[in-house]
Write a structure and sequence with these properties.
Shape: elongated
Number of strands: 23
Radius of gyration: 64 Å
Number of helices: 25
Distance between the termini: 118 Å
Helix content: 40-55%
Strand order of the largest sheet: 15-16-18-19-20-21-22-23
Structural class: alpha/beta
Largest sheet: 8 strands, mixed, barrel
Strand content: 15-25%
Length: about 775
């Protein structure tokens, strides 16, 4: 693989250096062995030459011995015994190894190795015996004894009888044996030299063959290793790039596959062209300096898409096989996209795509920081849809979500590009309008409310919704973003309290009102924990007999700090905070306990019913059936003696919540529990709703009863409501009877039952007991 205008760069080319080293080591080993053999052979030759020399001088010593014996006979001062000793010592040294004595006129003392070879050793033993026979014969001659009596050990039988001739024959035999031994030693030496030469030749050939085989094996191994690493790199998902001299010199196959580009497009200056302009400096610096660190940069694939690479930089310019800066990279585009999506999800609403509460709060803080420098005003507008919960409950959350998406688009149409629009949750939206005073903020709020009020069609249904908006103005300078948002929220709740479909500007008094509500909610929670709640009971009278036929259980709260708190004051707070659920559970249980106590005393007449009020939250939230059945079962109160009063508003709920409420009431009614519609005539119920719900009694609202005596319209409405109840087979009870005229009127209109201050105010359980045991007569 080559770069444009540069030398070829082959990171996986076979390297012969290790093979050459191995071959040289093999040759060196063979040479060392060859030299060792040569030295050994030369040493053997040297020793063999010395042996031949010692063997050759034995002939001279034998002749000298004969001459010295003859000279000694003539009286010459010579020492043939010493010469005989030299011959014997030399023969023994030749045979068994050791030190051969020096001989004057021949050589110095020499150390010889032990003779080898069966033939050579036999000849040397024969020579040693001949030397002994020669010496014995010489001694006999010197002693004047007959030589025929000398015992010869070499088993040689000279035919001559002359002593001198016999010595000369033995000396000649000794010389001959010595000569034969030297010739045998010489032949052995020649053979050893030839063998050493042959061994060196064979060793050289073996070394050459071994080196060639080793080189071949090493080359094969190197190629396999190179192919192995080539496969690893080319098949790896990791991306490898090598830069040198300011240009890309190598890219792995994974880089080509990832970018969809060939190496000719990437090598040389080509790679720099596909790096994102904002990242080129960082890549160039990394390739120039080679410091070990991580860099992230973008490159364009052949489709023009930007891929994010995370690379580790390694400086290998000192490596003569690389001579470049290596980037080991991996494609992190999916991870970057996931991180961006997580950030988007963390700061944007998944349904509408608008900013969420966290991002909106951050934008408000940033706007306040700019306002602190510029002293410019800004406004925060909070919007909450009116009645959106009914859409979710009646049509389902899918329709509600579509509606919210459409409303988000509408808000975007009336928002300036520089402003921030957010969905804070549910059906609550917020707007940040920078550089806006009170007049500008009110203009924006008015325009938004008008746009939202336009009819919208979702899932084939047309909706006309309104919204309530709260505006908080920040006059510039330092500020708390959370406080500004909270002020706008207070103003929005004030708009809802003022009639909805409008906007309100934040005022300091709103905070005090909210503080009062929060304080009341806190005390409600404490009141539940401290058992500060109790029940009062208002009797219900049969207008025909005047007998007490039931009571309505009414909740009372005696606060240690506020005194007696009106239900009209704390019930709305309990509804909005969710505390109505535990409070309603307390009412059901307490009413059942008290009824059980009266029942145990035997003071309740037949048909007596204790009624409790059921809130919308209790009814639509589910679980009321289980609560009532458990309370009746554990207190022992018959189901026919317990009744539930629900408002008209509670029975108009559609969707799953309404169906669940209707099913639970039907099951309770089938078990014997009585059902009444409270405040009838003031809500939105229809005959269809009354027909579908299990109802035993209608309670005519006090607003009609109070005018029934003097107002013909109230009288007509009351008469129609009573007639409607009777037509449906229901009882009709008039609430709020406070005068005899009202009592007479409702009696004339056909009401079955009545309750009000004229008969009795809500009273304690003991007072009701006294009324029941005193057999108080019906009002005449």
């Amino acid at each position: 693989m080559s770069r444009a205008g540069g030398t070829t760069f082959k990171p996986f080319a076979a390297r012969g250096r290790r093979s050459m080293v191995a071959i040289l080591l093999t040759f060196a080993l063979c040479a060392a062995v060859s030299v060792s053999i040569s030295i050994w052979a030369t040493t053997r030759v040297k020793h063999q030459a010395t042996i031949v020399q010692i063997a050759a001088r034995q002939r001279s010593l034998a002749e000298r011995y004969v001459s010295e014996v003859l000279l000694a006979q003539r009286g010459v001062d010579v020492d043939p015994t010493a010469t005989a000793g030299l011959m014997r010592a030399s023969a023994e040294a030749l045979l068994n190894g050791g030190t051969a004595p020096s001989v004057e006129g021949f050589d110095d003392e020499t150390t010889l190795p032990r003779a080898h070879g069966r033939a050579i050793r036999a000849q040397l033993r024969q020579e040693l015996r001949l030397v002994a026979d020669l010496a014995a014969t010489g001694n006999a001659v010197l002693d004047g004894e007959p030589v025929q009596h000398v015992r010869l050990t070499a088993h040689e039988r000279p035919a001559v009888k002359d002593p001198v001739e016999r010595m000369r024959v033995l000396a000649a035999l000794t010389s001959n044996v010595s000569y034969n031994a030297s010739r045998a030693i010489a032949r052995a030496t020649d053979h050893n030299i030839s063998r050493a030469i042959l061994l060196n030749i064979l060793l050289g050939l073996a070394g050459l063959i071994a080196s060639l085989l080793l080189a071949w094996a090493l080359i094969r191994a190197a190629r396999r290793q190179s192919a192995h690493f080539r496969s690893l790199v080319t098949s790896s998902t990791d991306l490898v790039l090598v830069f040198g001299e300011g240009r890309c010199r190598y890219v792995s196959g994974s880089v080509e596959r990832m970018l969809g580009r060939s190496d000719t497009e990437l090598l040389g200056p080509g790679f720099e062209q596909i790096v994102h302009p904002d990242d080129r400096t960082a890549v160039a610096n990394a390739c120039r300096h080679g410091d070990a660190h991580e860099i992230v940069f973008r490159v364009a694939n052949r489709f023009g898409e930007w891929r994010h690479l995370e690379a580790h930089c390694t400086d290998l310019r000192a490596d003569r096989n690389i001579r470049g800066v290596v980037l080991n990279a991996r494609d992190i585009s999916e991870r970057i996209a996931l991180e961006e999506e997580l950030v988007r999800q963390a700061f944007h609403d998944s349904l509408t795509g608008l900013a969420n509460r966290a991002l909106f709060r951050d934008r408000v803080e940033q706007a306040l920081a700019r306002s602190e420098r510029s002293r410019a005003q800004l406004a925060v507008i909070l919007l909450d849809l009116d009645g959106f919960k009914q859409v979710n409950d009646s049509l389902g959350h899918d329709v509600g979500d579509e509606l919210l998406e459409e409303l988000g688009r509408r808000l975007g149409e009336v928002t300036r590009p520089g402003d921030t629009l957010a969905r804070l949750g549910g059906d609550e939206f917020a707007m940040l309008v920078e550089g806006a005073d009170q007049a500008a903020a009110e203009t924006v709020a008015r325009r938004v409310l008008e746009r939202l009020a336009a009819p919208v069609t979702v899932s084939g249904r047309e909706f006309v919704l309104s919204a309530s908006a709260g505006i908080a103005i920040h006059a510039g300078g330092q500020g708390d973003g959370e406080a500004v948002i909270r002020d706008a929220d207070l103003a929005m709740y004030a708009a809802k309290e003022s009639g909805r479909g409008r906007f309100e500007l934040f005022r300091a008094a709103m905070a005090r009102e909210l503080g009062e509500q929060l304080g009341l909610e806190h005390e409600l929670r404490l009141g539940l924990e401290r058992s500060e709640f109790s029940l009062a009971f208002q009797p219900e009278i049969d207008l025909e007999s005047g007998a007490v036929v039931g009571v309505e259980a009414l909740l009372r709260w005696e606060s240690p700090t506020r005194g007696s708190v009106s239900p009209a004051q704390f019930i709305p707070v309990a509804e909005s905070s969710g505390l109505i659920l535990p409070i309603g559970e307390f009412v059901v249980w307490e009413a059942c306990r008290q009824t059980a106590a009266w029942l145990g005393e035997g003071i309740l007449p037949d048909g007596f019913v204790t009624w409790t009020n059921l809130s919308v939250t209790q009814l639509t939230g589910g679980g009321i059936r289980a609560l009532v059945e458990r309370a009746l079962r554990e207190t022992g109160v018959p189901a026919e003696m317990f009744g539930l009063e629900v408002t008209e508003t509670a029975i108009v709920h559609e969707g799953p919540a309404g169906e669940r409420a209707r099913l639970e009431l039907e099951q309770l009614h089938a078990a014997g529990v009585r059902i009444a519609i409270d405040d009838f005539g003031t809500g939105f119920s229809s005959l269809g709703q009354l027909r579908r719900f299990p109802v035993d009694m209608l309670k005519v609202d006090r607003s009609f009863v109070q005018g029934v005596e003097h107002d013909p319209k109230d009288a007509a409405i009351t008469a129609n409501l009573v007639s409607l109840a009777h037509a449906l087979g229901l009882l009709a009870i008039a609430e709020g009877i406070e005068s005899d005229g009202q009592l007479a009127s409702v009696r004339d209109l056909g009401c079955d039952l009545a309750q009000g201050f004229l008969f009795a105010r809500p009273r304690s359980a003991d007072d009701v007991r006294a009324m029941l045991t005193g057999e108080r007569a019906a009002v005449a």
